[in-house]
Design goal:
This protein has 1074 residues and is α+β, with helices and mostly antiparallel strands. The chain is built from 36 helices and 26 strands. The strands form four sheets. Strands 10, 11, 14, 15, 16, 17, 18, 19 and 20 form a nine-stranded mixed sheet that branches. Helix 26 links the parallel strand 25 and strand 26. It is elongated. The N and C termini lie far apart (94 Å).
């Protein structure tokens, strides 16, 4: 792999080899590489020393040393592609063609709205007697509102894209964190994230690994690498220390094991949417054409007007208005929310599936799993607990039903057994103390080997001293386990120079290679074919019928003279001496039988594909519920399966497969090739009406082809190899079959969520397009304005997709059969719902459109002039339309004809929040401008408060006290002159108080005067004078400044002394009241 670190001049200064030298070294292959290593470093050990590493102890693990290596040689990390910023996502959202058209039209409309034709006598259609001053001034609102709506749509779209990218990056990070590799540090074998590996690390490679770094092999056992990803060659390349030690990152370990010195790190729904879009485009074009023709014919033909140059901008405004209506129809018709709903539903489901132990690597697999009709599952670890325990054994001609006491076993047999298990197992397999006192011991590595190591411990023996005596580096030859051998063999060299071979594997296969067996005295006796048949019948089959996996352990001594040809495996692994046959129990997971019942009830057929004995497989299948007594099913071994599906020429025939797979439930002693053949045969079959959707589980390297061929491939997160994980679509982090059932639930939920939104979206689209089109053709205007449709588009696309795409799954999803891969996305029930709700909404909208003004006794909004402000009539239509969609959103939660649409609604807080929030926004948006202006007063108050008063010298203080010697009359006259309009407004309330008080005073004055004058005529004159004063006081509420004293300036009718008295009293009363 290429190094992603900065290549500094001092690279390698702290070590005996530079980064450039390592790069050059990794360019060599085969003998050239060996010669380069020998000439530059002496040997691999010399290269290790220069890198301050050890082939046996690895690195020290010191953090400072690790940091120095990362700085010198780089980190084993590929920097992710830089995430797009929010502004970049906003720019991408702005590239939408429909929005661009709408923006241009809105800008043109906004510009033309400020244009007024020259001359007041010019008659233009839409100008004369059609617009008052307020309507003309409101002409800019629609263009500005459209632009504002476009901004909202763009921001929401960009935010959704940003959230989606963030989720996907989180998923990718989770996948990368899951990948770990085994290295040796400070003599301890540990697993670390691949990103923490550094140059100089001693990595242990084994069957199934995906190599994360470049390296040089320092010790290998039968290692074969698949380099097809780099070279394109499908043949496996044999690697060895003395022939070709160069290992490259990105290649797969297909067989064997070994140790590698790390030398380089780093890295070097569409059809439905298209149909609706086309329909919307046609409808919008027809709408524009009809509106233009209607206007032209009505204006220039029927009314006989002529096209005046000064009226051209006005006519253009009409055409722009028609164009905006047409584009708006297109905006509403295009269900851009559908891809968003799919994305949100998948992203939401993937996030939730992680909690259900499903790590989704390919998003489409989530939805595909909802349509699965068949699951081909492994047995070990998936249906069973994958905690192996030896419960029975055949030792020294005795069948032990429990683990025997060590005293019951011959010492020589016991010693051979301990050595055979300890040496002929991967040294990474071991038993560790439990994490919790009193708990079960931890099994690390291959579970079958751990079961055998546990058997050694139960016999009160130890395997660790044997491994210390014979370390992995001293293993002379290793034939690693693979699906063809179904066995593993290891050769060691004894102290006398001879060789000993230990071998273990499937009992039926191993016993065929055995010519001897140890008796009760630990001596080898002949083991003839009839002895083998009797042992199979008396020991192996009874164990298998109890669901036990049977393993045979054997050995053979080989002479060093002449040394055997180790490449001739058939001559080496033969004439073995059987030590024991053990029965290993792997209990069925307690939750698996119920999970399989759910699958069967949901119309999914579960098949077991395993490498175990057919009797073991059949027993486990019965415990799991895959097969039931009395059912018509088939259980086959791999060889029988191949014999039945091939013709005389050995070619596979689909017709032969079609006769087998519908009834096949168990395929035992199968190879990965058999699994791939079965999966391909089921997928390609036309025996049934519906095409089968097949899910497959796999954990081994050779399971890759079957995992890739399947519609959905499940890899085991614990026991699975890196190759299997790379080939899979979903990783089961707990290796549990019940997690597959949860994946089915989530898959069906995704399918239903998309269908729910599609039903809701198409109802909105159909109604909105028909209303806009029909209304525009009949009334020459759309009842739903461009801004309103953009708001509808926002809440019904973005928010509704989020609400309906986040419904949690329920067990009810498993009560129906799969939809089928070829079924239409819009079912008959959905079509009924779309048409039914559409008809209801159209009836309501058209009723309000044509007779709504009579129903509510309001002015009609039809045939409104250009730039007229929104009418109460059309506002009612808009609110009614939005609220019908809002409640239909609740209906859309059920798409299978259920009556209770509120069932489980409170389990989805997102849905409830969006529905209530949309309802609240719909109310607020009607009062948005009022609210904006009102809140603006609060903000303006803060602005005023920030202005320093001393910075405003132009302001005058008011309300000073009276100066000594000033007369009341002069002060009143000055006050009256200073009263401005604002002060008069404040005095209107005070006048009411003055009137009441003045009336009482006047009445008292009249009575007093009447008594003094003694004549009725004088009283009448004085009463007339008072009424005149009251009239003059009322003039305070008018714009003119009037002095109270002028009301009685010429009192000709009253006596002088009385007139003066009244004037003085009125002046005093006015001053006091004010």
């Amino acid at each position: 792999m290429g190094d992603m670190a900065n290549n500094s001049v001092h690279a390698g200064a702290d070590f005996g080899v530079t980064l450039t030298e390592l790069r050059e070294l990794m360019e060599f292959r085969g003998n050239d590489a060996l010669q380069k290593i020998e000439s530059s470093y002496g040997n691999t050990e010399g290269l290790c020393q220069r890198l301050h590493s050890s082939t046996t102890e690895g690195l020290s693990g010191d953090p400072a040393d690790l940091d120095r290596r990362k700085q010198t040689y780089g980190q084993n990390f590929i920097p992710p592609k830089k995430a797009k910023t929010f502004l970049e996502l906003v720019w991408e959202a702005l590239q939408d063609v429909t929005l661009i058209i709408l923006e241009i039209a809105a800008i043109i409309s906004l510009g033309l709205s400020f244009y007024q034709p020259p001359g007041k006598d010019t008659e233009c259609e839409g100008q004369e007697n059609s617009e008052d001053e307020g309507e003309a001034e409101a002409g800019w609102i629609e263009g500005a509102a459209i632009l504002l709506s476009v901004v909202c749509v763009v921001l929401v779209t960009a935010f959704n894209d940003w959230s989606k990218e963030k989720q996907f990056r989180g998923l990718q990070s989770r996948i990368e964190q899951e990948q770990k590799f085994t290295v040796v540090r400070k003599s301890n074998v540990i697993q670390i994230p691949v990103a923490d590996m550094v140059v100089g690390d001693m990595a242990q490679v084994k069957y199934g690994d995906l190599l994360p770094t470049d390296g040089i092999l320092v010790q290998g056992n039968d290692l074969k690498i698949d380099e097809s990803s780099l070279t394109g060659e499908s043949d496996h390349v044999r690697k060895s220390v003395d022939k070709d030690p160069m290992l490259l990152s990105g290649t797969h370990v297909m067989e064997g094991s070994g140790r590698m010195l790390v030398t380089a790190v780093g890295f070097s729904l569409t059809v439905v949417t298209r149909c609706v879009c086309v329909s919307g485009l046609v409808m919008s074009a027809i709408t524009v054409i009809i509106l233009v023709l209607y206007f032209v014919i009505d204006t220039f033909v029927i009314e006989g007007r002529t096209w005046l140059a000064e009226c051209t901008p006005v006519y253009v405004q009409y055409f722009v208005k028609f164009f905006i209506i047409g584009v708006t129809v297109l905006v509403v018709a295009v269900p851009e929310g559908l891809p968003l709903a799919v994305t949100i539903s998948l992203a939401y489901s993937v996030k939730k599936m992680m909690k259900d132990n499903n790590l989704v690597r390919h998003l489409d697999a989530c939805e595909t799993m909802g349509n699965a009709t068949a699951i081909c599952s492994d047995k070990t670890g998936t249906l069973t607990t994958n905690r192996m325990t030896v419960v029975q054994s055949y030792l020294g001609d005795v069948h032990h039903r429990v683990v025997p006491d060590p005293g019951q076993v011959n010492p020589r047999t016991l010693d051979l057994l301990v050595h055979a298990i300890a040496i002929n197992s991967a040294y990474t397999s071991k038993i560790l103390p439990p994490d919790v006192e009193g708990g079960l011991a931890k099994q690390v590595g291959n579970k079958t080997e751990c079961g055998l190591l546990g058997f050694v411990l139960e016999l009160r023996q130890e395997y660790a001293p044997v491994r210390e005596q014979v370390p992995e580096a001293k293993l002379y030859k290793v034939y690693t386990f693979n699906s063809v051998r179904k066995s593993m063999s290891t050769v060691i060299k004894l102290s006398d120079g001879s060789f000993r071979l230990y071998s273990k594997g499937a009992s039926e296969i191993m016993l065929k290679k055995c010519s001897y067996i140890l008796d009760a005295n630990g001596e080898a006796r002949s083991f003839r074919p009839r002895d083998r048949d009797e042992m199979i019948k008396q020991v192996i089959e009874p164990m298998a019928c109890e669901g036990l996996r049977t393993i045979c352990i054997a050995y053979r001594d080989l002479s060093p003279n002449p040394e055997p040809d180790w490449d001739n495996e058939a001559d080496i692994v033969t004439e073995l001496t059987c030590i024991t046959v053990v029965g290993i129990e792997d209990p069925v997971r307690p939750e698996v039988p119920e999970a399989i019942r759910k699958c069967q009830r949901a119309g999914i057929t579960v098949r077991m594909v395993t490498g175990d004995n057919i009797n073991t497989a059949r027993a486990i299948a019965a415990k799991c519920g895959i097969i039931h007594p009395g059912d018509d099913f088939i259980c086959l071994e791999g060889k029988d399966f191949n014999r039945r599906i091939r013709n005389e020429k050995g070619e596979i025939e689909q017709e032969r497969i079609d006769k087998i797979w519908p009834k096949l439930r168990v395929l035992a002693r199968s190879s990965p090739t058999d699994k791939h053949t079965l999966v391909k045969g089921i997928i390609d079959s036309t025996a049934l009406e519906q095409r089968q959707v097949v899910a497959v589980t796999g954990d081994g390297t050779n399971d890759g082809p079957a995992l890739k061929k399947a519609d959905v491939g499940f890899a085991m997160g614990i026991a699975g190899t890196d190759v299997a994980k790379e080939a899979s679509d979903i990783i089961l982090t707990d290796d549990n079959f019940s997690s597959i059932v949860k994946a089915v639930m989530w898959g069906r939920n995704v399918y239903d969520s998309i269908s729910k939104f599609l039903q809701f979206q198409l109802t909105v689209n159909v109604v909105a397009v028909i209303v806009a089109f029909t209304g525009a053709c009949i009334t020459q205007d759309s009842p739903l304005k461009a801004v309103q449709m953009l708001w509808v588009n926002l809440i019904m696309d973005t928010f509704a997709s989020l609400a309906l795409a986040t419904e949690p799954p329920t067990e009810a999803l498993l009560l129906r059969k799969p939809y089928g891969r070829n079924n239409p996305l819009i079912s008959l029930t959905m079509m009924k719902n779309i048409l039914g709700h559409g008809v209801y909404q159209l009836i309501i909208i058209f009723t309000l459109l044509f007779i709504g003004e009579r129903i509510f006794n309001i002015d009609s909004g039809r045939n409104a002039p250009l730039h007229s402000p929104p009418s109460e009539h059309y506002t009612i239509i808009f609110n009614t339309f939005v609220l019908m969609q809002l409640f239909n959103e609740i209906n859309a939660r059920k798409i299978h004809g259920e009556r209770n649409v509120f069932d489980g609604i409170f389990r989805n807080p997102i849905f409830c929040s969006i529905v209530l929030g949309t309802f609240a926004m719909q109310i607020v948006i009607q009062w948005l401008w009022c609210l904006f202006v009102g809140v603006g007063e609060l903000l303006w108050g803060q602005v005023i408060a920030t202005v320093p008063t001393e910075r405003l010298p132009c302001l005058k203080e008011a309300g000073l006290g009276l100066e000594p010697g000033e007369e009341e009359g002069e002060e009143m006259a000055e006050d009256e002159e200073e009263i401005d309009c604002a002060e008069r407004e404040l005095r209107r309330g005070q006048i009411l108080w003055f009137r009441g008080l003045n009336r009482i005073q006047t009445q008292m004055e009249v009575v007093s005067t009447f008594k003094r004058s003694g004549s009725f005529q004088g009283a009448v004159r004085r009463r007339s004078s008072v009424l005149s004063q009251l009239h003059d006081v009322n003039t305070l509420s008018t714009p003119s400044h009037v002095s109270l004293s002028t009301a009685t300036a010429n009192p000709t009718h009253a006596p002088p002394h009385e007139n003066k008295h009244i004037q003085r009293h009125m002046r005093t009363s006015t001053y006091n009241t004010t």
